[in-house]
Amino acid sequence: MGYDVKTEASGVDWRADVLATKQVKNQLVKLAFEVQWSPQTLEETKQRQDKYARDGIRCCWLFKKLPTSEERQDIPMFQLQFDQSENPTFIN
After folding, report:
1. pLDDT tens string 32-81
2. What is residue 87's predicted lDDT score, i.e. its pLDDT?
3. pTM for this entry
4. Which residues are bridge partners to 67 per DSSP?
5. Domain hosting residue 20, numbered range
6. Which terminal residue of the chain has fewer beta carbons within 10 Å of its beta carbon, N or C?
């Protein structure tokens, strides 16, 4: 899809598991993907999401266990589980 993809990409005060960038017209599109396997509170997720937003990065979170049961439009969060064949499946 034409994205330049880096793992463990760092900014001033953040580090993305995966950062994908692509020049679209005259704008650099930046997408971060975070795989959060250890527990993380909703507040910490929001603080980290705010840092990405500040730097013009859209971020998608993939959790082992979601930090909240409420649906959030400002933080795209998905629970990632594995079926018996070890294939990933998304829930929520």
Report:
1. 999 999 999 999 999 999 999 999 999 999 998 999 888 888 899 998 87
2. 67
3. 0.85
4. none
5. 4-91
6. N
Does residue 88 surpass a pLDDT of 90?
A: no
Name the H helices within the chain.
42-54
Report the number of distinct structural domains present in the chain. 1
CB 34 within 8 A of CB 17: yes
Q: How many helices (H) and strands (E) does the chain have?
A: 1, 6
Hey, what are 10's tokens? 């760092």
Q: Which two tokens stand for residue 33?
A: 């993907």
What's the full length of the chain, in residues? Answer: 92
Output the six-digit token pair for 47.
């603080």
